[in-house]
Amino acid sequence: MESEIKQISQSSYAVIGPEGATNFGIIKSSDGGAVLIDADIRRIDEVEEALKLTGCAAVKYLIDTHEHFDHTSANFYFRRRGVPIVGSAGCLGAMRDLGGPDFERMMKPVPELYERFPGLCLTLPDVVFADATKLTLPGVTLHLKYCAENGHSHSKGDTTIYFEEEEILIAGDLLYTEVHPVTFFGNIPNWLTALKPLFESHYKQLVPGHGPAVEGEKAGRAYFKKMYDYLEDFYGHAVEVKAGRESSEEAAKHMMSGAYAPLGKNRMVQRNINHFLTGKWF
Ligand SMILES: [Zn+2]
Question: Taking residues 137-147, what's their average pLDDT?
Answer without folding.
Answer: 98
